[in-house]
Design brief:
There is one protein chain. The chain is built from eight helices and no strands. By secondary structure, it is an all-alpha fold.
């Protein structure tokens, strides 16, 4: 399967950072990443790893979902700070099954509650 860019919204990051009055360097320091990495996120050149997304939202005093585009299963997983592997393990399925759900396959009823608890709905 081809790489899919995370559903990250760089404009939301820039707006939130400016609203807090923090510099890129200050955000980077709190996250333990380089200032150039934060700048690349704001330009949309790349996106934060899931674990950085949740920390970034905390630093900015916003919810992770405000940095994410859409409300798909993929977007909700990313906003929860989880990789596909972490999400699939938490629900008790293999990563390929989770990937199929993110591609639009209906989540079986027996897993629906666990997915809802993990990433919301």
């Amino acid at each position: 399967m081809a790489y899919q860019r995370p559903p990250f919204n760089p404009d939301s990051l820039t707006a939130a950072r400016l609203a807090t009055g923090l510099s890129r360097a200050a955000v980077a320091e709190q996250l333990g990443v380089s200032r150039s990495r934060v700048h690349a996120w704001e330009r949309g050149d790349n996106a934060p790893l899931p674990r950085h997304l949740t920390a970034l939202a905390k630093v900015l005093g916003i919810t992770p979902t405000s940095l994410v585009e859409g409300s798909s299963l993929r977007s909700r997983r990313y906003a929860a700070g989880l990789t596909q592997a972490e999400a699939s393990t938490a629900v008790g399925v293999d990563r390929a099954e989770w990937s199929r759900w993110e591609s639009g396959l209906r989540i079986p009823h027996r897993h629906a509650d666990a997915v809802e608890r993990l990433v919301g709905g």
